[in-house]
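Justification of resources, computational component.

The compute hours requested in this renewal are based largely on the per-chain cost of generating structure records like the one below. Each record pairs the submitted sequence with a full structure-token output. That output is archived, and it is also reused by downstream analysis tasks.
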Amino acid sequence: MNVVVKALCIGQPKPFNGAELSAIDKQPVDGPLAIRSFGIEGDMVADTMHHGGPDMAVHHYPQDHYAAWGEWLGGHDLLNRPAAFGENIHAAGMVEADVHIGDRFRLGTVLLEVSQPRQPCWKIEHRFGAKGMVKRIIQQHNCGWYYRVVEEGVASAGDTLERVETGHGDWSVARLFAKLYDPSHKASRDELEEIAGLERLCELWRSKVRESLNV
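The structure output for this chain reads:
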């Protein structure tokens, strides 16, 4: 599966909710960008407890969802430009059901590996000024995902994101997210044990699943 990256986006922490800072307001950058194990050079996170780190180095949210969000919200200015959801990679043609945990993608000279779905939080609703967005993400499984950086390198907007290896083929991002977050798709014990054994799923999510199995 190949898609063309329309924009690579970065952001710096800014005042977001009173005294709280956030780097969700990302902007597209022209020209080649270095992508390191910690993320895209020039991109930062404000809440280092819940964001950032090697397993959340690069965030991808499909542009494919923008039209449906526009209908649900009754239109929104943020949807008229890249990175409405704070994503680093802005592209269309690949959604959560198409991508598996552990899939590897080449982008420029960078090798990326899908490490986890994105866990939605209140900041999305605050950014859009709309209640109910997190609930809709949980129901629709349109969560986006994160990559870790396997090989550092350089990439630019206009480069092709090319899948070069399939990871855990039975576990798409959509399926994993649904099993752990959507009550109507609650995972069985066998499924939880399978999730805990996904080697390319980030350790934080695997450890949480192991804890739930031991309760």
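The two ends are 40 Å apart (CA to CA). The chain has one domain: 2-185.
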